[in-house]
Every structure is written in structure tokens, then in C-alpha cells.
Amino acid sequence: MATNLNHFEVFGLQPAFAVDRSALATRYRELQREFHPDKYASHSEGEQLLAIKMAAQINEAHTVLRDPVQRAAYLLKLAGVDVPPEQTTKDTEFLMQQMLLRERLEEVREQPDPAAALDELSAEARGLISSEEQRFAETYDGGDLGAAEDSLRKLQFLAKLEKQIDELEEDLFND
Predict the structure, then answer these.
(1) CA pair distance 37, 32, nearest whole angstrom
(2) What is the radius of gyration, based on Cα positions, of the chain?
(3) pLDDT per residue as tens digits for the range 77-103
(4) pLDDT tens digits, residue range 50-75?
(5) How many CB atoms lie within 10 A of CB 6?
(6) Rounded CA gap, 8 and 11, in Å?
(7) What is the pTM of this model?
(8) What HEC string does the chain produce?
(9) How far are the Cα atoms of 103, 115, 151 from residue 95, in angstroms, in the given order?
(10) Is 90 exceeded by the pLDDT of residue 172?
(11) From CA 34, how far away is CA 12, in angstroms rounded?
(12) d(CA 138, CA 149)
């Protein structure tokens, strides 16, 4: 395997947002077995270094491709669009929605049933993420890189919200 492959090529995939995660995981395990540095312990130093380099490339590619936000950013990067993480969407309606969702998140502890409130918020966030992932796929596949870029920015917001929900859930149930 060449060391100059893009992440999709490492796994023998065509660049696309839709990825079969099960097939990706299976191929990842196959590649890990094939290029595990321990397998090359008795080989030359050059072959050992190559195996280490390949294992690192496989790990990085897997990390990016299994995460929808990182995969979307990577697809745009391959298309020549670099999306700085500090840039935000200009969609004021979306930004207002995010503010309201975060306010609800902050108020979860004060609810009569915090677990139910958090479950409801989590389900809403998952629905928004799913819709935005679909929008990204459609705009990217349709060649509208500007809309795909905006969609990625929204996905970044939503992923952060999802992480905050998970952190609060862990905090609530570990008290």
C-alpha cells in the first residue's frame, strides 16, 4: 500500500459522505492485521518504519472516515475547500435555534424530571444532526460546495451540542 493515499483510497472507497460503517470497521481490522508493526519485527528497519507509517495512516483515515463531521470536512478539503473551525454559519435562524437548544440544556437540571428533559433534547439533537448530514450529502453530491460548507459549519455546531448533552448526561447520572 502506498503511503500517499487519501483516506478513502486507504480503505478502497470512493470519496463520498455516505460510508458503510460496518464495512469500514471490517476493512480497518483487516488493514490493522496486515500492517501491524509487530508483524514486521523480524523485517528490515526500513520495512518496520514503513509498517509503522502505514499503521498510523490507517488509524488516522479510520478516525476521520468514521466521524461524519470530520468526514465532511475532509471531503471538502479534497475538493479544495478549507473550512476553518472558527468560522460560523451566517444562517441567523439556525444560530437562534442553537441558542435556544443550549438554553434548554442549561435548564435541564432544574426540570422536574431531568433525565426525561435530557432524553427529549438528545432526541431532538440527533434528528437535527441526521437532517443536516443528509443536507450535506445532497449538497456535496450535487456539487454545491458553498452549501456543503455551510452545512458542515452547522454540523460542527450540532456535534458540539451533542457532546455537551453527553457530558451533562454523564454528570447527571454519576452524581
Answers:
(1) 9
(2) 20
(3) 999 999 887 788 899 999 999 999 999
(4) 888 999 999 999 999 999 999 999 99
(5) 14
(6) 5
(7) 0.89
(8) CCCCCCHHHHCCCCCCCCCCHHHHHHHHHHHHHHHCHHHHCCCCHHHHHHHHHHHHHHHHHHHHHHCHHHHHHHHHHHCCCCCCCCCCCCCHHHHHHHHHHHHHHHCHHHCCCHHHHHHHHHHHHHHHHHHHHHHHHHHHHCCCHHHHHHHHHHHHHHHHHHHHHHHHHHHHHCC
(9) 12, 25, 13
(10) no
(11) 15
(12) 12
- Angle at the Cα of 119 from the Cα atoms of 113 and 120, rounded to 5 degrees: 90
90: cell is 451566517
Please report where in the chains the cell 437562534 appears, as a residue.
96
Identity of the amino acid at 166? D
Alpha-carbon distance 140 to 67, whole Å? 16
On the question of pLDDT at 48 being above 70, the answer is: yes
Which is nearest to 22 in space by CA: 66, 60, 81? 66
Residue 110 C-alpha cell reads as 432544574
